[in-house]
Specification:
heterodimer; A: alpha/beta; 8-stranded parallel β-barrel; B: alpha/beta; Rossmann fold; 5-stranded parallel sheet; 9 helices; 11% strand; globular; binds cobalamin
């Protein structure tokens, strides 16, 4: 392996296409309904720390039921302190991502359970080496702007697993890392310590957060206590943190789409308000992955017209609250990189991007976010590259109207050899994995999108070497992971950097 | 005249109308219809009809849930009468089910519990984030034949092993059978931790439960 050029990020730039699922009046009505729900029905916060904060701020707290009912003025006042724009920082500052409402940054999906082996196609439980390998592969793709923890390091102890995973990502990529796997306060504190070591101290981390966190709400109208406590740690440290609703129409939220938006909105708005009450001005974001259940099995579908509409509608809510949005897309229920995966991921990615979702999750997982596939990662990246090209829209100006060329070619000529064509042809989108070969060639040669994606993944893994962590920093990060292990009373397990070093020394 | 009473019971279940089901059950008691007859000839035909509609693809999960709830309400009304008459309603088996400690995923567990109860099992749902101690206590309290352990996280699935050990330590295993499920759980994991069975969906869970109580019976 030889070092290659630095990793790059190329987000989609918003503006070329306009899609609107809700008009201003609809947004206002959803907002009103949301405040009404928070004030009268309430939201459950099973966290003593959260309930204390709510009570001190003037909300009505039912300690027995752990339900908070907050007056609208309190919610509106709290939300007003949330910053509208801030960066997600990266180990390599050139890869920082300004969340400014004008870009769509895509990331890998997260917390997969199995990995489809690149060589055999067989499924196996995921481990820390998979996290490292996937991070390295994603580092090489400019469509991937930041990481989620792609799969779980099941070969590491549960209390420190999320930290092993985090370190495996940082050690294999210079891009921003966002966790969706840190759901307790002690893990959050250790992760923040790791991030501070990378950023160069707590203040530096506040200015350039190389780590952000995502937590889930628990529909309907509830939160997970551990997740809330972890989020409060992030808020105190100034690490961007968001809450994702996964309200599922007909099971954990109303069957009507507007009703599902209200339930999810109440969960997210209440959580973000709490974070602002705890740490006014801390960077927060809205996150969502609503769905409509499969009416036969109750399964979370992650694809279907309702999901796509939720993707189009939610950024309008986040815009209304002037906070960035992280939108779940690419959440196909398909079992393999196939037609279903293509349809679901293309439509979900397109609608969420066209409305300008700031963060777009997540590439690479199949079977409802359970099976990681390197092939799917590359095919999803191709989908994102199509969406990115569409978002450029159709600029109309003197140069693009191209009257000069039209005149010079005249009727019945061709544009193939016009200098204008050569000048601009690279602006056209070009596929990497679409099969545009003649039928006879396909029959003779075989191959095709999946096979090419597989080959590309192998090639990138054989050649791409990201900038490694400084050895001293790597040791410091490992030390923090082991500190958490001792605190939790479990045996220490080698971090990926220690394991790699040991393997190197043994050779 | 019993026919119109049975028809009202059947309708209440098919419509998923719990109030109507309770009313039909009270009316049956008032009319002197024996509770077991009301169940077998009034309410159960409604359940079967809904089950058939679901299998045919005409009905959906909410139809099933509502029918089950209506059935449950009727049973609650009839239960004291059954006790008075000192007849025990035959249940397919007693199941204690819950999501393991540290895990709050409940949708799949609820579905499994719901389908088990519509299939004639007596189900005690302990909810989410359930400690091994609570599982053990519930098995003792309800004299359970089966324990169902749901885990959706790779970090919490090891809790299934802990619970099996706790049941063992309490001297409950065997006879109590353990079945496991949830997104990261596989058949291989089930055998590794010494569970008696695994299913990847609610339908399969019912089949499995029936097999497990059958096996328990045979062993006795
Ligand atoms: C909905 C959902 C949630 C909801 C749960 C809502 C609720 N009230 O239950 C919310 C948003 C709260 C949530 C939270 C989290 N989630 Co979640 N969630 C899901 C999701 C998308 C669907 C689960 C579901 O309800 N499926 C529908 C039901 C019908 O299916 P099922 O649960 O699999 O159950 C069936 C079978 O498994 C089986 N079965 C289930 N239990 C049992 C028991 C027995 C005895 C038997 C026999 C059978 C059986 O039968 C059921 C019916 O057919 C899954 C992904 C997925 N596709 O599974 C992730 C998933 C399980 N979650 C995941 C994660 C990481 C989390 C969080 C940690 C995220 C976070 N950062 O906050 C938290 C965990 C909090 C906690 N402490 O538990 C990961 C777990 C991955 C891992 N490596 O461990 C998954 C796989 C998604 C992912 N890749 O990120 N989640």
């Amino acid at each position: 392996m030889s070092p290659d050029v630095a990793a790059a990020v190329s987000p989609a730039v918003v503006g070329g296409i306009r899609v609107e699922a809700l008009d201003a009046e609809a947004v206002a009505r959803i907002h009103e309904a949301t405040l009404d729900v928070i004030e009268t029905v309430g939201v459950r916060f099973p966290s003593e720390r959260a309930l204390d904060l709510w009570e001190a701020a003037g909300a009505t707290v039912d300690r027995g039921a752990e339900v908070v009912r907050a007056p609208r003025a309190l919610i509106e006042r709290a939300l007003a302190t949330a910053p509208a724009a801030y960066p997600l920082a990266a180990r390599d500052p050139r890869l920082d991502l300004p969340l400014d409402g004008r870009h769509v940054y895509a990331a890998t999906d997260g917390c997969g359970i199995e990995v489809a082996d690149l060589a055999t196609g067989e499924r196996r439980p995921s481990g820390v080496a998979d996290v490292a390998e996937i991070a390295r592969l994603a580092d090489a793709l400019d469509e991937v702007a930041f990481h989620w923890i792609p799969v779980s390091a099941q070969d590491r102890p549960a209390p420190s697993r999320s930290l092993h995973e985090l370190l495996a990502c940082w050690a294999n990529s210079t891009k921003h890392v966002q966790t969706e796997s840190i759901v307790t306060a002690p893990e959050a504190r250790a992760a923040i310590e790791m991030a501070a070591a990378i950023a160069g101290g707590r203040d530096a981390l506040r200015a350039r957060p190389v780590l952000s966190m995502m937590q889930c709400t628990t529909s309907p109208l509830g939160q997970d206590g551990g997740s809330v406590d972890a989020a409060l740690e992030a808020a105190a440290a100034g690490i961007p943190v968001g809450f994702m609703t996964m309200a599922s129409a007909a099971f954990t939220s109303p069957t009507s789409l507007a009703g599902t938006l209200v339930v999810g909105n109440a969960e997210v708005v209440a959580a973000l308000a709490l974070l602002q009450i705890a740490a006014p001005g801390c960077p927060v974001y809205y996150a969502a992955a609503q769905t409509a259940i499969d009416l036969r099995s109750g399964a979370y579908t992650g694809g279907g017209p309702e999901d796509f509409l939720f993707g189009a509608a939610t950024n309008q809510l986040a815009d209304f609250y002037r906070v960035p949005l992280s939108m779940g897309a690419f959440a196909t229920g398909a079992k393999a990189p196939d037609w279903q995966a293509g349809v679901e991921n293309a439509l979900s990615a397109f609608l969420a991007s066209a409305v300008g979702s700031d963060m777009l999750l997540g590439l690479g997982l199949l079977n409802g976010s359970r099976i990681w596939s390197h092939e799917q990662l590359l095919l999803d990246a191709e989908i994102f590259s199509i969406v990115r090209a569409m978002l450029r829209g159709i600029p109309v100006d003197d140069a693009s109207l191209a009257l000069d060329v039209i005149a010079s070619v005249g009727p019945a000529g061709d544009y193939l050899t016009a200098p204008h064509t050569r000048r601009h042809m690279r602006e056209l989108w070009r596929p990497r994995f679409m099969d545009r070969r003649p039928m006879g060639v396909v029959e003779a040669e075989g191959g095709g999108p999946r096979a090419w994606a597989n080959a590309k993944a192998r090639e990138l893994l054989a050649t791409h070497v990201p900038e490694p962590l400084e050895p001293l920093l790597a040791a410091e990060l490992s030390r923090i992971v082991h500190g958490r292990e001792r605190e939790a009373g479990v045996e220490t397990a080698p971090t990926i950097v220690e394991a790699t070093a040991a393997a190197g020394a043994g050779r | 005249m019993n026919d119109t009473a049975f028809e009202a019971m059947r309708r209440a279940v098919v419509d998923g109308d719990a109030d109507a089901a309770a009313a039909a059950a009270s009316a049956a008691i008032a009319a002197g219809i024996p509770p077991l007859v009301a169940i077998d000839e009034g309410f159960m035909p409604g359940m079967k009809e809904v089950g058939a509609g679901f299998a045919a693809g005409d009905l959906f999960l909410p139809d099933m849930m509502l029918a089950a709830r209506a059935m449950q309400r009727a049973l609650n009304v009839l239960e004291p009468e059954l006790q008075k008459a000192a007849v025990e309603r035959a249940v397919a088996g007693r199941v204690v089910i819950g999501t393991v400690a540290g895990d709050i995923h409940e949708i799949g567990k609820n579905l499994v519990g719901m389908l088990l109860s519509t299939s004639g099992f007596e189900v005690h749902d302990l909810g989410v984030n359930v400690s091994p101690e609570r599982f053990v206590a519930a098995v003792q309290e309800h004299r359970a034949d089966i324990v169902g352990l749901s885990a959706l996280l790779t970090t919490t699935m090891t809790g299934q092993r802990t619970i099996i050990a706790a049941l063992q330590a309490a001297g409950l295993r065997p006879p109590v059978k353990v079945m496991v499920g949830g997104a990261p759980v596989t058949g291989a994991w089930a055998s590794e931790i010494g569970a008696d069975g695994y299913s990847e969906d609610a339908m399969g869970a019912v089949e499995l439960a029936k097999r497990l109580v059958g096996a328990g019976e045979a062993a006795r």
